[in-house]
């Protein structure tokens, strides 16, 4: 896959998540572009895979490009960064999950940072079911 196509897929995955939830996490983008299967994401979340990068299909260089493009999109679109701790699901839920093969703090931080569209979150919170009904004529 060429970089231009990959960039388009990353931007699309980010846009779709922001429209739906008001925020996006790198793991959402990885799933959205097919770099990470939902099954492997679940295995990692339950601690069956030691670090997220092992569960991803692209190599480490390609993952680095993806992560860079996620941050570039966030900056270009004025998204607010929000660090989020990831802990293992299940009985050992106090165990912090690892993202990278190296365990480098900077890489771990980038994977755990979500990006929030503050205006979109506010708009989504203001969407009440009654607002949707007002679009129809009710007799």
SSE blueprint:
Blueprint: H1 3-21, E1 23-24, H2 26-32, H3 38-45, H4 52-55, H5 60-76, E2 80-83, H6 105-111, E3 113-116, H7 118-126, H8 129-133
Antiparallel strand pairs: 1-3, 2-3
Relevant terms:
139 residues, mainly alpha, 3-stranded antiparallel β-sheet, 8 helices, 3 strands, 55% helix, globular, disordered C terminus
Question: How is this structure best described in words?
Answer:
The chain has one domain. α1 (3-21) packs across α2 (26-32). The protein is globular. It is mainly alpha-helical and 139 residues long. It is 55% helix and 7% strand.
Number of strands: 3
Pattern of helices and strands: HEHHHHEHEHH
The largest pleated sheet is described as: 3 strands, antiparallel
Mean pLDDT: 90
**Beta-strand percentage range:** 5-15%
C-alpha end-to-end distance: 54 Å
Count, helices: 8
Return the structural class: mainly alpha
Question: Over the alpha carbons, how many angstroms does the gyration radius reach?
Answer: 17 Å
Q: Name the strands of the widest sheet in spatial order.
A: 1-3-2
Approximate helicity band: 40-55%
In one word, what is the shape? Answer: globular
What's the number of structural domains? Answer: 1
Low-confidence stretches: 133-139
Concise structural overview:
This protein is mainly alpha-helical and 139 residues long. Helix content is 55%, strand content 7%.
